[in-house]
Amino acid sequence: MKLTQEIKASLQKHQKVISIQMDVHHINSFTQKFKKFIFKGSRWYQEEQNIKSINTTFKEPFPDNLLQFMNENNCQTREKEVLVGYEDLSYNEVLSQLIPQNIQPPQGFEIIGKIAHFNLSPEQLPYKYLIGQVLLDKNKNLQTVCNKLEKLHNVYRTPQLELLAGKDSYDAVVNEGGIKLNLNFEKVYWCTRLYSERERIIKFIKELSKDQKIQVLDLFCGIGPFSLRIAKDLDAQCIANDLNPECFFYLKKNITENKLQNQVIPLNMDARDVVLKIYDKQLEFDFNHVYMNLPVLAINFLDVFKGYTQKTGKVELPYIHVYGFAKGKDEAELIDQFQQRIVQCLPGFEKTQILNFHILKNVTKMKKMCCLSFQLDKRSAESDFGLLEQQDENNNSDFEDDEKDEENQQIEEVINKKVKID
């Protein structure tokens, strides 16, 4: 279903409103107190000399503060009838009239620069172009509205997008914490909602480090938001690495535009190879924090820190901040699952080492995304170095199957309801 001029015209209707008249000297005071109740698109209308009126959304009985204002300023009211059309209605008002009442207009879209990104539910999909065009019309700062077609199954975790309205362009500029970030939403992974998580981790690293110089190994950096933020905020030195060559392109651009060339080293390598090159002195970098924000796979890469002391000769051990998915009813159950997975890579790891455990979000009813912060344990660091035999690291079927099952269940529910498509 697409938005046409005929559909827009069909929304026109006459609506009764309450018009409030007052002396022009009281207009500023009224606007300050009741601005949100002024009827959208309404202008002050000259009734007579020094008397103007404005249409409002108030309905009788009036609230006490309005009655008090009217009494104190000798205001009068009268009922008017106005013609309301598409341009006067909000995003929610338009969609509530155009799609079936049993379907909720989507609210949870993400803004990336001038791009709006939806994850539409199956029952919303028949109305996707209508939804996209209405959102674009009602948000003049947007240029592109898109929908994610599938989960992030490819190696670079980039989305497959479908254009719903506007320009077929996914270049964007995002400002976060005083850092300017360039990206192409179709070619790199980006999630605006992780802003608060980066804030949390930067604050926690500051608490851990005290007066120590912060040196961060950011192994799955994307376009560099964390490395650039911590470099700017805490004067940290960072290696920022990502396997995706598109991320590497924007990472270099973002480092240059934010003038952080002396603090952030960009790399485009496999994460283990970065650490191995540091061990072999091909890269000179004495890291004391490791940031691993790739929830699907990051824990699998912890094996590269087994034998850390043997490889570096260092006694002081780095802090590791690693993200992952787990299934569980409560925090204790989630931590148990992480402990079972981590100990396969770091044999000395114990859950009592966890300095901070944070649940970011519920991904599905069965899965949560979490972050663990801990210091590499002495036993693992002093063990003989040896990487585990790696299985297919793109395979995360335990969790992806959960998402597919949930999607299939949603689709089946829609079919059973026999939603009528206009």
Automatic annotation (TrEMBL):
SAM-dependent methyltransferase TRM5/TYW2-type domain sequence ranges: 109-378
Enzyme Commission number(s) from the entry: 2.1.1.228
Keyword Glycosyltransferase set for record: no
One of the record's GO molecular function terms: tRNA (guanine(37)-N1)-methyltransferase activity
GO biological process: one example: tRNA N1-guanine methylation
CDD domains: AdoMet_MTases
Enzyme class: transferase
Acidic residues: compositionally biased ranges: 398-410
UniProt keywords, alphabetically: Cytoplasm, Methyltransferase, Mitochondrion, Nucleus, S-adenosyl-L-methionine, Transferase, tRNA processing
Compartmental location: Mitochondrion matrix; Nucleus; Cytoplasm
Catalytic activity: guanosine(37) in tRNA + S-adenosyl-L-methionine = N(1)-methylguanosine(37) in tRNA + S-adenosyl-L-homocysteine + H(+)
Record's function text: Specifically methylates the N1 position of guanosine-37 in various cytoplasmic and mitochondrial tRNAs. Methylation is not dependent on the nature of the nucleoside 5' of the target nucleoside. This is the first step in the biosynthesis of wybutosine (yW), a modified base adjacent to the anticodon of tRNAs and required for accurate decoding.
Family to which this protein belongs: Belongs to the class I-like SAM-binding methyltransferase superfamily. TRM5/TYW2 family.
Subunit description: Monomer.
The protein, known as: tRNA (guanine(37)-N1)-methyltransferase
Organism in which the protein naturally occurs: Paramecium sonneborni
